[in-house]
Every structure is written in structure tokens, then in C-alpha cells.
TrEMBL record:
It comes from Luteolibacter luteus. This is Uncharacterized protein.
Amino acid sequence: MARLPFIHIRSSKFPAMPGEEEELVNEGLYGKAISIYLNEGLAAKGYQMPGYVCEDWGWWVGVKQGDFSSGVCVYSIRQDKDVQEYCACLQDAPGRRWSWTKFRRIDFTEDVTKLDADLREIFTKDPEIEVVGFPKDLPSPEDDNFQ
């Protein structure tokens, strides 16, 4: 099954945090504040949240619920003083994947689509966050159609 689209957001709510610069693997890939926000928001929806970490491409927020474990990938698109833009997407696409604990392929479509819906709800219900869109590809400030 195809990957679900990115969730492109704009907000002044998630600036670079003090000391975050030292945690970055690659310069400018901020996202600790939004990772903490998602960690708290998804925990409030009943997910187990094993943590978040800075990667070389952005930030990864771990998510677990029952046999399902995955992550939310957070990409920093633009960091200005007054506004920041991020894209978030799920680590996994809907469909079947191998489960080492069950030693067989399990269909996690329902879990992935629920996590995506919960993620969208967290963003859309927050009045301080503008959901720009749901692009299939990661937008870039260099793109002609970048907003």
C-alpha cells in the first residue's frame, strides 16, 4: 500500500529550543519542540511514547500501542524568527509487515490509519497551528509551489 501523505504545518509555536543546536546531527534540522508536543499529544490519546531523537534527516518520535510500534518523522522545512514550518509523516505505510514477536506478517493498516488520523486531529484542533496541506512529496522552500 502507498504511504500516507505528509502533514505540512506552519506555526510560531515550535521555535528552536535553548540548547537544541548541540543535539542536531545536521545544521538547521530543528524539531525538538514539536517532538515534545507530539509526544505529549499522542500520549494523551493513549499511545505509549518511548521517546524522541534527533536524526540526520530530522526528528523521530517513537509510538507504540499494543503489538503496533512505529514512529512519526518530523522534518524542518523553514525556521524563521516568527514562523516555523514542519512536515510530519508516519514511518510506516498501511499494510502488512513482518512481526518478530508473532513470527508472521501482520496487517497494521488499521493501526497506521488511526495514528495518522490522531496526528491530523492534534494539528487541526490546535488554533496556534495552520495546516498548510497534505503533500505526497516533502516540500522544499526552493519549490515553485512552496507556500
